Amino acid sequence: MSATEKTSLLSDEAPETTCIGCPCGISAAVCAFCTHSCCLEKPSATWPAAFAGMTASIRSSSQFIGEQYWWPKLFAGLRCECLLCCVDTYGVQRLKLPGTPAVPTLHLFFPESLRNKIPLLTAANEGRISDVRVLVYYHGGGFVVGQADSFSHVGFISYLASKLNAVVVSVNYALAPESPFPKGVQDGVNAYKWVISKVSGSSVTLAGDSAGASVALEVGAQARDEKLELPAGIALISPWVDLSEQGFQYSSWNENRRIDYISEQPARLFAKAYSNGQDPKAVSPIRLDLNGLPPLFIAAGEFESFKNQIEALYEKAKNTNDLEVEYFLGPDMPHAYLLFKDLKHTTIKTGLKKLISFLTKQYNSASQEGLQQIDI
Q: Which residue has the higher pLDDT, 7 or 158?
């Protein structure tokens, strides 16, 4: 089969119910599970077979979500301790702080060098710590699924804590449909307020992936509006920033529908649950005024469904006066690819270096102005 013929199978005119010409002879309903070379578009050639199979499996299974959220919530929230034997946690110690009416449940990740800070960060006092960096992290999951300490995120968050030599505070913000916008964002803000009661905002950065990246951006904007101490920087990994109908009209949805594991049908359901009758544009971070925000790092995958709307956010940031923004488009990559650090893929390694470099730069640039002025 020629390259042209292979491409034609995945064109806009390709049938959705039958894989015409597919040598595997299976229906389109399950063909996404197949990793036969004829079914893989160009980027998949650079992916390990396990990665291709995983993305295909998620893409296929997501078609059956409907409005029954219990099973994706269960899957995305996997955090069984026995699973962690498969995860490199970099010697990081984890500690859970149960939620209160004022602050959501927080999961703290302490690298070995900062374990002596555990009593100081968890004590109920008004003192601030002068010699610790903190990263506040918001997990992804379409505003509907996921947990701050899920199996999918523990390894990545531990990696960040180790490489940055920082305490990572992973936030269990409220999720739809039980808690639609703006409850999750308010939880994110309350978590940030708790952190800056312990350390100066200049020694804090925010980060998140997918929906969590959008929460991080919302938190930064609200901190500015409330005239709180701003974080030193905000890192956005594949942020979902436009939940409106316009956001679903971008061409990257159709172009990458056979590659990325984020599919339009479940995304529409999650957007509906999160907006809960509100104007989807009014709950979309693309609406935010970016003036006065700290430096931004934005990462996107070349072959992810959100690519066009992430590019729209980048263009908006670029055109915002006095806003520093760094953008990395990962060649051949799907959604939130930086979380798949264990694949050792060249693009993933490059993206992670850029992410760590950006966050380290923000800590270092703030150190002279911030860390020395902290009340102890």
A: 158
CB atoms within 10 A of CB 289: 11
Among 355, 362, 327, 358, which residue's Cα sits nearest to residue 339? 355
* Tally of residues, the chain: 376
Cα–Cα distance for residue pair 198/201, rounded to 1 Å = 9
Helices (H) and strands (E) counted in the chain, each on its own, are 12, 8
CA distance 141 to 184: 12
Q: Provide the whole-model pTM.
A: 0.84
- 281-298 confidence digits (pLDDT tens): 999 999 999 999 999 999
Per the CB < 8 A criterion, the answer to whether 245 and 309 are in contact is no
Q: CA–CA separation, 206 vs 219, rounded Å?
A: 9
Burial state string for 88-109 with b = 16 or more CB within 10 A and e = fewer than 16 = ebbebebeebebeeebbbbbbb
Over residues 10-32, the pLDDT tens digits come to 333 333 333 333 444 444 444 44
DSSP state of 309: H
